[in-house]
Amino acid sequence: MAAEQFDAYRLPEEHEAIREAVRDVCTAKVAPHAAEADETGEFPKASYDALRAADFHAPHIPVEYGGAGADALATAIVIEEVARACAASSLIPAVNKLGTMPLILAGSEELKRTYLTPVAAGDAMFSYCLSEPEAGSDAASMTTKAVRDGDHWVLNGVKRWITNAGVSEYYTVFAVTDPTARSKGISAFVVEKSDPGISFGAPEKKLGIKGSPTREVYFDNVRIPADRMIGAEGTGFATAMRTLDHTRVTIAAQAVGIAQGALDYAKGYVQERKQFGKPVADFQGIQFMLADMGMKLEAARQLTYAAAGKSERGDADLTYFGAAAKCFASDAAMEITTDAVQLLGGYGYTRDYPVERMMRDAKITQIYEGTNQVQRIVMARQLLKR
Ligand code: CAA
Active site includes 312? Predict the structure, then answer.
């Protein structure tokens, strides 16, 4: 291939343009609300409105359902850039993707048309209900049940740690339809907030991502039409896992964005802050810290983008790459944000500066969509299969 034709390993121009467009919106209309959302724990409605106005609230939804039709790499860049400004707000596009991915992967055409269209329009958000009080890492041990009753299913049980619960209009709910079949006895359903029998717990009091509500969801004889099942009976667990293969990439992107926000802030600070008669950035000890932060961040970003490419193409090794990107990027984000606090010294430890928020927000990326210990189980199983 001729050198001028071979665009070796760099982002296409349109993806760079998307980054610039999201960054502009977020700098002007999302970042200004980040500290307040963290302080009050309230959902950042102004950020939602700004993302919606620019079509960044659920960019992955295909054009045929009224969406922007962003590919997985573009979606990752959107989430990264929103997270750079406000991690809690980045859960708007991230959880809209998580909630709708089971439909996109396995739903009927009618279900997709009914439920993807309002999300694309920004009239509804979509959450994902997998975890339960006694079924976290061991997701297949869930006990929420769905029992067939004529043309309906009746759901009973409790889901826990549900991101954007109460704010979202729609929920993908995984429930046991055959208790004798473990993971093969789980099915997926769409439940609406307006379905009688659904209710929500009090918001969890969390360390970070405070502007993104996390609540329990209760199902008390929730009766839904049989055609709200996503895919065939018994395929729910595989759909849940296939979904996470794609969306762990978005959590990796979120981690990259949080880390970039912390590095950018710390970089500016060390050039302003003077001690011993000169900017602290002139000290080699500080420079080495910055260099390590930048290096880890770029490695995390490259792995995340490679995983996003695999998500877009549906490559066979996506399971491995999704887990690796999420695990590596979230560990890197925790280190980078902790170092950013260190670079600001005592100021970094106060809420007058944003880096302590970023450090608290980074922590969740090592925990949700599968702990980093689960990611290592997933990676090891994939490696041993090859
Ligand atoms: N794609 C398709 N099918 C898959 C799959 C995948 N990636 N992973 C597993 N399956 C299938 C398997 O093939 C298997 O079927 P067979 O028996 O026919 O092979 C079946 O599912 C069961 O798989 P395992 O035997 O591997 O299941 P396991 O019980 O050992 O669990 C696990 C594996 C990886 C630990 C899994 O339970 C897991 O990922 N746990 C973590 C759960 C998680 O990530 N929760 C996050 C909740 S969402 C969240 O946090 C969102 C939020 O609000 C932001």
Answer: no
